[in-house]
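Memo to structure team: turn this sequence into structure tokens by end of day. - J.P.
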Amino acid sequence: MGGARPQTSGKRRDTIAFTVVVTVLVVIGAAGMLLVLALSGAPRTMLLATVLATVPVGPLVACYLWLDRYEPEPRRLLAAGLLWGGFVATAVAIVLQGIGGLFVGINDDTSLAVVAPVTEEATKGFFLLLLLWWRRAELDGVLDGIVYAGMVGIGFAFVENILYLAASYNGTDGMGPGGTSALTATFVIRCLFSPFAHPLFTAFTGIGVGLAVASRSRVRRFVLPLVGYAFAVAAHGVWNGSTLYGGRNFFVVYLVLMAPAFLAAAGFAIWARRSEARMLTAALGDAAARGLIPATDIGWVVDLGARRQSRQYARRVGGERALDAMRAYQQSVVELGFLHHRFLRGTPPPDFAARGQEYVARIAQVRPFISFPGQVVPPQVSPR
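Reply from structure team:
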């Protein structure tokens, strides 16, 4: 959902409300988690744990950005998801689990297998519900839900891994005397073998939210996120529960359930990305038939290789200003395609008309100043 979006006054209010709520909670959560981290070990230990916990973050983020190439989500919202997962979800989950242990008398095994999945998936998933409530226009379907869920899960896993790595080194995790060997084992299991665990769990909630956005039924729009959350809790519970019965059972669950589930989820995400190409082609074909865009431009916008080729061509013949114009045009056409698809499905957003008019106006403004390979180069390369 990249690029600037047209906003009505109501949408601006929703955007402000979302920004304020998320910012305030991230600041409070960050303060709490930084205090927890400061109390979890010596500075050198925490620095080492932080460096090790960072190792899987870059590759995971890159994978989700790769999935998000058709219609890149706003970087500020992706960053908000990371921060929410790292600070808000972790802090609230710790508080809820502490309350459960204090007042309900839950033992450690029950907390790990039941309470942790319920609370952690709820605190992570709440970010997706805020998007659904206040920034629904940023969600076009399942793939968007998976991407945002992935960012929240990556942020959560990053901070949680710091705590686990520090505890293993200090010997405060109840697994032995600690030291380098314990730290190495924890790093291998959490950062190399299963860095995808939290993003995978929360992806179920993201899928539920994505399906809800595309649904015509009010009942399904309410139920589907809850169903996704239930699957997230179940997957999380099975994973955590496997650690209670020894290393052999843990690796059996990893090989029989978790690894196949991850591969299935990755395959589903790739299929969803390919289905977006087919959906965009169909939606833009209908838009072209209505005279909203030139039909000859569709391939240069939908096909990722052709999109990249056209941007390289724009830079070669017109420099950075031509490249900016090409990006603006392609982004506006893609946005129009997603919006038009929702119109064709019968699930247009409330501001459908205003947004559609803005996209069409932007397309008409930029199109005279760009050309695709094999077309006549315009005398000007930017409408600015």
